[in-house]
Amino acid sequence: MQNTAFAAMNLEAGKSACHLLDTVWCERGFPVDPVWIAEELGMTVLEADLPSNVLGGLLKDADKDAVILLNQIETPDHKRISCAQKIGHYVDLSQHDEDCYRYVDFRAQQAGFQAGADAVFANYFGASLLMPEHAVQDMLRQGVTPVAMAEHFGVGEDVMLSRLESLGVPVHAEAA
């Protein structure tokens, strides 16, 4: 039952990311710039001196624009996926008409420990925003390697391999 709920949530997250790509990013190519998208949605994106166990956060006060905080010590790849995931949280919370919230993304959650429904949605949304399924499938049909895909989408190899696995693509160490 839980797998069915996660599958439905992932489907919804993927659709939401595709909608945003179609309506905001408008076929600007790859890699997708999540900071630009966040700013187009009216959010402010800031790099901050956060504790080392915090990847980032999303803050929204009533009647104010949302703010995405990214940990300044993270690599550019991690900042990109973290920003995309925070946009996912924003989209999810906006669908529920929530106007005030605080969300902090701790490292343990990023690694998949104790991920709640909101984190599952945001993680899949972030992956779908940066590495849309249709684009990944097109590259697979062309025989593009995971390493080349990672470079094309502007993500780390670990993120690309995780995306391929989430799409049901068998990934072997020698494929990387």
Q: Could you give the topology of this structure?
A:
Blueprint: H1 2-25, H2 34-40, E1 44-48, E2 54-60, E3 67-71, H3 76-95, E4 101-106, H4 107-110, H5 117-130, H6 133-141, H7 146-153, H8 157-166
Parallel strand pairs: 1-3
Antiparallel strand pairs: 2-3, 2-4
Helix pairs in contact: 1-5, 2-3, 3-5, 7-8
Care to give the gist of this entry?
This protein has 8 helices and 4 strands.
Describe the protein's architecture and organization:
Strands 1-3-2-4 form a four-stranded mixed beta sheet. The chain is an alpha+beta fold. It has helices at residues 2-25, 34-40, 76-95, 107-110, 117-130, 133-141, 146-153, 157-166; strands at 44-48, 54-60, 67-71, 101-106. It has two domains: 2-130, Arc Repressor Mutant, subunit A; 131-176, no CATH class. Helices cover 55% and strands 13% of the residues. Helix 1 packs across helix 5 and helix 2 runs parallel beside helix 3 (76-95). The model is unreliable at 108-114 (pLDDT under 50).
